[in-house]
Amino acid sequence: MTKRDIVVIGASAGGVYALRELVAGLPHALPATIFIVQHIAADAPSYLPRILNYAGNIIVIQPVDGEPIQRGHIYVAPPDHHLLIENETMLVKRGPKENRFRPSIDALFRSAAYCYGPRVIGVVLTGLLNDGTSGMWTVKRLGGVSVIQEPEEALYPSMPESVRENVVVDHSVPISEMAALLTKLTQETVNERPILAQKDQLRLEKEVKIAEEENTFNMSILEEGDLSPLACPECHGVMTSIQEGTLLRYRCHTGHGYTASSLLSGLKRSIEESLWNAIRALEETVMLLDKAAQVLEEGGNVRAAQEYRAQISEAEEKIRQLRPLVFAG
Questions:
Q1: Is beta strand 6-11 parallel, antiparallel or unpaired with respect to 145-149?
Q2: Which residues share a beta bridge with 83?
Q3: Which residues are catalytic?
Q4: Helix (H, G, I), strand (E, B) or coil at 303
Q5: Which pLDDT score is estimated for 187?
Q6: How many CA atoms lie within 13 A of 84 on its CB side?
Q7: So what's the pLDDT on residue 141?
Q8: Under DSSP, is residue 67 helix (H, G, I), strand (E, B) or coil?
Q9: Angle 179-131-173 (CA atoms, 0-180°, nearest 5)?
Q10: Fewer CB within 10 Å, N or C, the chain?
Q11: Closest by CA position to 39, among listed 101, 93, 117, 99
């Protein structure tokens, strides 16, 4: 009889410490395969496989695209690449970012649920914002089990709290009890895979393909929700809003995905960048006007130089008004 043998884990801030403790408690002969997304800077090497190999008794690997899945292994997403699952094979792709992250927890969870349905155990650990909530919603909808680190003990509780607020959570435990729980859950037999409505199945298939670098525009992703007046912070493309239970998400026509809170964070960042660009342009204007005024003064054209000096004063006043807005967030 089929057991729960696919474990997908997502972590962000504080995740290395939690993952190290979790992996240290897992038995060598765990009858499952584990896939991990830990948020990490795109241009930084990942030492997580080495850390987890030292911590536990299970082989930890950073896979390459097209590598077959081996039972009893742990696979860690490489920096700046989504880790996805497809027909007993792992895909390592640079598809569009989700929630401003690549690798994305949601992308991994969706692909696992799409392929393995009720065989999946989803685990969300410590982290900021809410990457993992949408993916966990899909795991649950296709018959999988949802597990979160107890938010009260997580270094950064936002991610597990978001799951608890938007998804029916089966187990909420401290990290010290997580390994024993996963070992127990992998012994359970699974029920039949729930059947999704055709529209929901098609949308899930499209979103999995988007992470796999398929052409989002050709898949008509904008038809899968309600058109939004908001622009994508990443590419400024048109977006559609998607409702998943109580969770509101957005996807742009080029493929970038956001929850409402991650979209807000992205828009705030865009506003700050715009303000800094305005300050930079005004400061460059001051430098140009000052140089031009000096040349005019040296040539004896004092009146024109004074006009330039007046424009400098106006630009400096605008800079004084903008800078507090940047620092106020």
A1: unpaired
A2: 92
A3: 12, 39, 131
A4: helix
A5: 95
A6: 26
A7: 97
A8: coil
A9: 25
A10: N
A11: 101
